[in-house]
Specification:
about 140 residues; mainly alpha
Length: about 140
């Protein structure tokens, strides 16, 4: 038994905040769409860069190289030959990662701004109001 009987009679609060299934679907959709769009955009960017003779690192251009040990596994041979047939794969994958990070940053920023202006209030009904004290800088 507690020292204060009112505290012992009070029930524990339940958190009833749950994420809407619609927002879960939007998140799942974004997980699939953002990398796909960034890969397609990277593929387009590399093809334009090659046709316009933009300076690109020569290490990223050309065909990918696979270890010969992997070709001893019979199930991987068709997949590895398909991957080795892709020209400029390293440049496309590098740009796709950069575009994915950029799109993720942009979406996070838009989400934060939207949540700030359209989200729930900062203080709930049980929060104390913010202090309105004028604090002066401490000087020695």
């Amino acid at each position: 038994m507690t020292k204060y009987t009112l505290a012992s009679q009070r029930r524990a609060r339940r958190e009833e905040q749950s994420i809407s299934p619609v927002w879960r679907g939007v998140g799942c959709f974004l997980i699939l769409i953002v990398p796909l769009v960034s890969f397609l955009l990277a593929n387009l960017t590399v093809s334009i860069a090659v046709s316009q003779n933009w300076p690109m690192p020569y290490q990223l251009m050309g065909y990918p190289v696979m270890p010969t040990l992997l070709f001893k596994l019979p199930g991987l041979v068709p997949i590895l030959t398909f991957i080795q047939a892709q020209q400029y794969l390293y440049a496309i994958l590098l740009l796709a990662v950069i575009y994915t990070v950029a799109f993720g940053t942009l979406i996070s920023y838009i989400w934060a701004v939207g949540a700030k202006y359209m989200g729930p209030p900062r203080y709930g009904p049980l929060d104390a109001p913010p202090l309105k004290a004028n604090v002066k800088r401490y000087k020695r």
